[in-house]
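BUG-413 | component: ligand-complex export | severity: low

The export step for manganese (II) ion jobs runs without errors, but we want the raw record kept on the ticket for reference. Input record follows.
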Amino acid sequence: MDLKALRVNGQRLQSTLEEMAQIGATPAGGVQRLTLSNEDKQARDLFVKWLEELNLEITIDEMGNIFGRRPGKNNSLPPIMSGSHVDSQPKGGRFDGILGVMGPLEVLRTLTENNIETERPIVVVDWTNEEGSRFAPAMMSSGVWAGALERDWIYDRTDINGLRFEDELIRIGYKKDVPCKKSPVHCYYEYHIEQGPILDREGLTIGAPKGILCLHWYDIYLTGEANQVGPTPMEGRHDALCAAAEMILAANELPGRMGGNMVTTVGEIQNGPNSRNIIPDKVHFTVDIRSWDDDLALNAWDLLSADFQTIADRRGCPIKIEETWRVAHSPFDEKLVQRVLDTADELGYSNLYMVSGAGHDASYMNQICPTAMIFVPSLGGRSHVEVESTTWEDCEAGANTLLHAMLKSANES
Ligand code: GLV
Ligand code: MN
Ligand code: MN
């Protein structure tokens, strides 16, 4: 058949995404499939069933990563890979991650029903815990697979209730014996929603990021002195929440102060004992710093952590700082990025060379093989929220771009 005329089945992709969106569906139209929750397990089970229907060789490793491999004509050649994640944020959207797993699944369905063989094998993958919301850090299992993160450190990470990652992986039945360890990969494509406003605002269909910003995560623990709020005078208090409040504003003002291109966010906070009539004595909060410029982000952290110390000293609230995780900015393979742009052109889809502000497993895959991503617009630039949306037409366009970029790479000798 004329390969150039080949297209994915947009209707099938839509119904596949709609079926997945029922798992962990939230009342306001989003999903909640926290890593290693029962909903994550259900989504995995469904994904595995769909892999089985395609007769793929299925491998699940000791981190719960799920791989479906379609053999090529020459199976001694390293495969091309494409995937993302089925887990979500709490009150997340129906497209983040799952589009990048169902997209390549649709590509494989299209190849199979058209009896199209490729030179190289093709692997579709679901990486465990991309989000990092329930268990920090993010992109854990692509990180272990790529050799950038330690498996045993990850196994011991705990959620807010003290549950261990490894125990939860066993509980949902997805800890297997296969080592989580990289093997040669010809190239990796990750298909994703943009999660920002640019494509939607510009009215463009396909984005090809030149890479991903650095992500730096910190955990701050403050200790104050609890006391009855009525009788205790304002002078001499050691209020851990007030110390945190000052620090949070300092974090928010940091990008303005640095003058460069970066963003900082405090997104998670726990306050203890969290009673309206007790002065808070235990606060934990997180800091997320991102930039294309790793040095700028590191210098910013030096300034901010010094500020935190000053605030903690002034308020008499001892501070403990954990430098939890850093992943450097990730410039993708220029030829592969160009391939995405050229493929979009050939298919008649408007496109843009851009940057990814969101983190993706592609950051770690980029450390071991040529990597590129395909973005489609997020309506209103909203993501990590229940109203996150992308038109079905754009989902189909992205999948067609993925199909043809993958075909070119899979047929390279
Ligand atoms: C991943 O979802 C991120 O935080 O960008
Ligand atoms: Mn994602
Ligand atoms: Mn996400």
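Assignee comment: Attached the raw record above. The two ends are 20 Å apart (CA to CA).
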